[in-house]
Design goal:
Largest sheet of chain A: 7 strands, mixed
CATH superfamily of the largest domain in chain B: NADH-ubiquinone oxidoreductase 51kDa subunit
Strand order of the largest sheet of chain A: 15-14-20-19-18-16-17
Radius of gyration of chain B: 22 Å
Order of helices and strands of chain B: HHHHEHHEHEHHEHHEEEHEHEHEHHHHH
Number of domains of chain B: 3
Strand content of chain B: 5-15%
Oligomer: heterodimer
CATH topology of the largest domain in chain B: Rossmann fold
Radius of gyration of chain A: 27 Å
Number of strands of chain A: 23
Number of strands of chain B: 10
Strand order of the largest sheet of chain B: 3-2-1-4
Helix content of chain B: 40-55%
Strand content of chain A: 15-25%
């Protein structure tokens, strides 16, 4: 890594050999406008937006493909540079429909932003725009508008270089150039919607998100994808207390710039549907609403008197919840078993780029908190089916629907003398419960997940839970209160502090220091909890 | 003057190996393989002063010398036979009439960079030429000039004729390489340059047909003989394709530095029908047009034409007499470039069509005040701002036409009709 000294707009910068001018500028926060350049894709150099003036070079150079050299002097704001930016923007806009009022990209569009920063002139083009295909379906998640496309080829390169699935290409020439699917191809690879994220304009939009909400109304909460144990960093973007979309958040240690389609849209399943908002208790003829007070007392006495207890926690529960859950079950029952829900499936090569075989984002963390006793979830389910338990406390998972043989699971749960189900929606498992506790999902809670690499990452509440439901941690603390362990109403940070004192892998970590990029737990500890 | 490039053109069966070999063909190739080291060959061609005839005029020997010798990857030599520049048809003549000279030059060039696989990338429309080349390559293989262990030297070389699919841009060397690789014919970013990262990412040299066809003569007669012809910086002879309003159109071989005016008036018989010369494009459609008085003192060599504000380019001389509507001529060229823009870089992709559309409305009586300055401004915004020189090539003609015939363009706008003739 040889150091190279250059100046950018008169400012001295020490960077390293092999870097390009645009990278060196990015490092010091000088933003050179760009369309085709993307740090994770090959250099295309075609948009010509990043041209800069370099001393001793007769022509302007593209910053994305010019390597730094000792003593190089770069100007990013010279009259020549500003003139060419304006010219390039004009070229990009002459055949653009300028349909911002009906375009989903409006508000996060590089054409809009750069036009305001660098162009700001009335159109000089009055000779008839080129027309192209509108609302062309590229795949299940992506739709293309050819007229808005600036042919930067980021999408084409993504499919060539990241997924290596090669669905897209450029066809035709000149101003009739356009992006198209290869014959018989469908843009349906497991990462397909990333092309929407990297499209700098409104050419590729998200079929799920489009027309739902203007992006400037979105509230953006940094969080973690609950789809699997990869723990991709996301921005959970909400509107009127609903999740409108997930966007990937850059984290080079985890997901780089990407997010898989399964994760991106998993909030529909996990946060959608009719919510449970009243605790219920089984009486003659079925489940009837009750108060929290009565429901929790019933749980407390029910579990205490129906041992052995099987405690099954969702892999989407946080470390803090897992810590309280393990503590509670151990406190209530001398005879118990604890496991985190875990199921694996086969993944294709492309899926493996990001996805983990499980769907339990905090599987490793929950086990570290003690939600693990007898050799795994499958073994515990076998025992449950064999009738070895007198009661079960199931949090956040529909054991019936997820079972390989649902009828078998249903019969086993039905036979249990006492079943508590804590969930957000009415599921097949909820219908069998003796006590139902309405709780919260990943989008409504603060806390931490530990991903498959042993990286501790922060979940932030993006939504307000519905009236009547309680946070899982609140429920668990109230039950612990009944069991004689006074927690008061501890905050997430306080619960984390408690678990940090008790669980060695998490020792000496301050909740507030975890940050938006997470922190890596000691590698050895992470390995211990790997299946 | 002794002809170098056209020495076999016009001879009966000039395309056959027997004819070519009977006239001394492939002796240079034998000499190179049997007695010259690649470095000697490169020095010889450097000393001859031969410059690339594709349009840019880059010294050929120097181009070869950029190929790294210690690179373990295969090296490729590509003969650029994608002649597509408007008004240029010299390579076609050589390919059709003297294919073995093109092949021999290709082999010599391949040897200079120690390539074992060479390609001739021929323009898709040149079906006849491709057929001739393929037959000639077959003949040369059978005669042992191409293939394994050439002349018992242990040197192996294969030669593949590859037909393009009909795109002007594939004459640009990096677009040609993209096309040859089986990709879309898009120019590549430089750096890296083809000499180190060319075909399939391997060291590659691309030489024009005419450049290569001069090599057998240079080897046969020696560099000093070639360097004795022409001017101080433009050595040897060059082919000129003459078309348009001229009495004797065709392909001419001239010593570099030949007076332009004398050439048009004496060798080519001048403008026919007693009409006056109005303008002439000296180096193919992409080069700036020149006025009659501008060519008076110009000689046909790289430096002289450049000093007069245009470029020698491919040597495609397009002659226009006084009956020519310069708006229509500019529109014609502009339409060509708009159609051929590959679409990769924003300025060229969008700007070429924009200029064409404005020129179109001027020509058809709907021009507006300010259109001319707008075209000049657009042309200025394209030139120099693209990956490959196509942007310049597309921007220069309308710019030059408007600057040099501004009155005529203004009259079109003002009177809303053509005012010529």
């Amino acid at each position: 890594m040889d150091p190279v000294k250059i100046t950018i707009d008169g400012k001295e910068v020490v960077t390293t050999k092999g870097k390009t001018v645009i990278q060196a500028a990015d490092e010091i926060g000088v933003s050179i406008p760009r369309y085709c350049y993307h740090p994770k894709l090959s250099i295309a150099g075609n948009c010509r937006m990043c041209m800069v003036e370099i001393e001793k070079m007769p022509k302007l150079q593209i910053a994305c493909n010019t390597q730094v050299a000792e003593g190089m002097s770069v100007l990013t704001q010279s009259p020549k540079v500003l003139a060419v930016r304006k010219a390039v923007l004009e070229f990009l806009l002459i055949n653009h429909p300028v349909d911002c009022p009906i375009c989903d990209q409006a508000g996060e569009c590089f054409l809009q932003d750069y036009y305001m920063q660098h162009d700001r002139q009335a159109s000089r083009f009055d000779v008839g725009k080129v027309h192209d295909r509108k609302k062309t379906i590229f795949g299940p998640n992506v739709v293309f508008d050819g007229e808005r496309c600036i042919k930067c080829t980021r999408c084409v390169r993504f499919c060539q270089e990241i997924t290596k699935t090669d669905e897209l290409t450029v066809i035709n020439r000149g101003d009739h150039s356009t992006i198209a699917l290869f014959d018989d191809a469908v843009l349906d690879n497991p990462l397909s919607a990333n092309v929407v994220d990297i499209c700098p304009v409104g050419a590729l939009t998200d079929r799920d998100f489009r027309f739902k909400v203007r992006v400037w109304y979105l509230q953006k909460t940094p969080s973690i994808c609950p789809g699997c144990s990869t723990g991709c960093n996301i921005s959970a973007e909400t509107y009127q207390n609903r999740i409108a979309r997930f966007k990937p958040r850059i984290n080079e240690a985890v997901n780089s710039h990407w997010l898989c389609d399964e994760g991106r849209y998993c909030f529909h399943d996990l946060a959608g549907g009719e919510r449970l908002t009243t605790p219920m208790i089984r009486q003659e003829g079925g489940l009837v609403p009750t108060t929290w007070e009565k429901a929790l007392r019933a749980v407390y006495s029910g579990l205490k008197s129906a041992q052995p207890v099987a405690g099954i926690l969702s892999g989407r529960n946080t470390n803090e919840e897992a810590f309280l859950f393990a503590k509670l079950v151990k406190k209530l029952a001398a005879d118990y078993a604890l496991e985190v829900f875990y199921q694996e499936r086969e993944l294709t090569q492309v899926q493996k780029i990001l996805m983990s075989p499980d769907r339990s984002p905090n599987f490793r963390g929950a086990r570290a908190m003690g939600v693990s006793t007898n050799g795994g979830f499958d073994a515990l389910m076998q025992k449950l089916i064999a009738g070895s338990f007198s009661s079960a406390y199931v949090v956040g998972e529909d054991l019936v629907a997820s079972a390989a043989e649902p009828d078998q699971a249903r019969t086993a749960l039905q036979k249990l003398p006492f079943l508590v189900v804590q969930d957000t929606r009415v599921t097949e498992t909820v219908k069998l419960a003796h006590v139902v506790l309405p709780a919260t999902h990943f989008g409504e809670k603060d806390g931490t997940y530990t991903n498959r690499q042993g990286r501790l990452q922060k979940l932030n509440a993006a939504l307000i839970p519905p009236e009547g439901a309680l946070q899982d941690s609140e429920i668990l603390m109230r039950l612990l209160d009944l069991a004689g362990e006074k927690n008061g109403s501890a905050t997430t940070a306080e619960i984390f502090a408690a678990l940090s004192r008790e669980v060695s892998a998490y020792a000496n970590i301050d909740y507030d220091s975890i940050g938006d990029q997470g922190i890596e737990l000691e590698a050895a500890v992470a390995e211990n909890h790997d299946r | 003057m002794e002809t170098i490039l056209l020495r076999n053109v016009g001879v009966a069966d000039s395309h056959m190996l027997a004819t070519y070999a009977g006239r001394g063909g492939y002796r240079s190739w034998q000499k190179v393989v049997e007695s010259m080291k690649p470095a000697e060959l490169i020095d010889e061609v450097k000393a001859s002063g031969l410059r690339g005839r594709g349009g840019a005029g880059f010294p050929t020997g120097m181009k070869w010398s950029f190929v790294p010798k210690d690179n373990p990857k295969p090296k490729y030599l590509v003969c650029n036979a994608d002649e597509s520049e408007p008004g240029t048809f010299k390579d076609r003549l050589l390919i059709e009439q003297d294919p073995h000279a093109v092949i021999e030059g290709t082999l010599i060039s391949a040897y200079a960079i120690q390539s074992h696989t060479a390609f001739i990338y021929i323009r898709g429309e040149m079906v006849y030429g491709a057929t001739r080349l393929e037959r000639a390559v077959e003949e040369a293989y059978r005669a042992g000039f191409i293939g394994k262990n050439i002349f018992g030297s242990g040197y192996d070389l294969d030669l593949i004729v590859h037909r393009g699919a009909g795109a002007y841009i594939c004459g640009e060397e990096t677009a040609l390489l993209s096309s040859l690789e089986g990709s879309r014919g898009w120019p590549k970013l430089k750096p890296p340059f083809p000499a180190t990262h060319g075909l399939f990412g391997c060291p590659t040299v691309v030489n024009n047909v005419e450049t290569l066809a001069a090599l057998p003569w240079i080897i046969e007669r020696g560099a000093p003989a070639y360097a004795a012809i022409g001017t101080e910086k433009s050595k040897g002879t060059k082919l000129f394709s003459v078309s348009g309003h001229i009495a004797k159109p065709g392909v001419y071989e001239l010593e570099m530095g030949y007076p332009f005016k004398k050439f048009l008036e004496e060798d080519c018989g001048g403008v026919p029908g007693g009409k006056k010369l109005k303008g002439v494009i000296p180096g193919g459609g992409s080069m700036p047009v020149m006025l009659p008085d501008e060519i008076d003192k110009v000689n046909l060599d790289y430096e002289s034409v450049q000093a007069a504000g245009s470029l020698l380019g491919s040597g495609g001389v397009i002659v226009m007499d006084e009956s020519t509507c310069m708006v229509r001529a500019a529109l014609n060229l502009s339409r060509f470039f708009a159609h051929e823009s590959c679409g990769q870089c924003s300025p060229c992709r969008e700007g070429c069509h924009w200029m064409e559309k404005i020129l179109h409305r001027i020509e058809y009586g709907q021009g507006e005040q300010g259109d001319l300055d707008l075209i000049l401004n657009i042309a200025g915004n394209i030139a120099g701002n693209t990956i490959c020189p196509f942007g310049d090539a597309a921007a220069w003609p309308p710019g030059a036409f408007i600057r040099k015939f501004r009155g005529e363009f203004e009259a079109h706008v003002a009177e809303k009709r053509c005012t010529v003739g």
